[in-house]
Amino acid sequence: MQMTPVLEVKNVDFSYPDGTRALQSLSLGFARARRTVLLGRNGAGKSTLFALLNGLERPGRGEVCFDGVPVAYDRGSLRQLRRRVGVVFQDPDSQLFSASIREDVSFGPMNLNLSREEVGLRVEAALAAVNLTALAERPTHALSFGEKKRACIAGVLAMEPEVLILDEPNAGLDPPMTAELLSLLDTLHRRRVTVILATHDVDFAFAWADDICVLQEGALAFHGVADDYEAVGRSFPGLGLERPWVHEVFEELQRKGNIAGDRPPRSRAELLARLR
Q: Phi, psi at residue 216, to the nearest 5°?
């Protein structure tokens, strides 16, 4: 029996005031507790889709649903939606507005009518999750780009959302910070948080995600599971996307008889483990 997606857009069109059409007839559902990556060139509609999923924008046609129920756009309904669906946008400066990291992370929980103790517990847990406890009192304007990104993630985590959406979360992060981010996302996934993120990194997408979606000019061009090797091989070249590096290396090693199995590994680590 197919389960209702936790988030879904149905036949959605969206255009900006200047007439730019960002999404067209888009229907796409996100399964609960799955890790989904959106791929697509700049301007494909990924950021617009994220704004719709969080109620920051409203579709011109079609509907957005949470747990099968169409989103309502009154103030109370949107407040409830944003408690359950958190978004971390690509530019951290668009989300940070308080004097210090602690104040910024506290803002959301303080508006949930929680006790002071509960707010404190949530804030400390969120800061610890992104390794910012030692910097909690630092002014947000004095943070590095990577620290700002982690502060934004902490602010969303403190709301304890059911769905976490991240737009290009690893852009501008060095390898150690990226590894920390992935560890955090894996922890959230084990807690059954639905994680949706956009990236241009095809190799990362196939190493980490359960599901892969490709947007092209505001429409859905591909939707499948990340380990569907044949579907990716058929579809990606025609979409102007590179195939995962690990697929290409696997095929060459397979041709030379240097690797076992007929299915490619998902990551560099899996590839190395399977070498003869």
A: -140, 115
Its pTM stands at 0.92
Q: Which residues are registered as beta bridge partners of 197?
A: 37, 166
pLDDT tens by residue, 140-175: 999 998 899 999 999 999 999 999 999 999 887 888
Cα 211 versus chain centre, distance: 12
Domain ranges of the chain: 7-243
pLDDT score of 1 more than 50: no
Topology (CATH) of 7-243: Rossmann fold (3.40.50)
> Under a CB-based contact definition with an 8 Å cutoff, are residues 104 and 98 in contact?
yes
Interacting residues of 66 by C-beta distance below 8 A, sequence separation 6+: 6, 7, 81, 84, 85
HSE value, Cβ hemisphere, 13 Å, CA-based, for 172 = 14
What's the CA gap between 87 and 77, in Å, rounded? 17
Position 179 scores a pLDDT of 84
How far apart, in whole angstroms, are the C-alpha atoms of residue 110 and residue 134?
21
Across all residues in the chain, what is the average pLDDT? 92
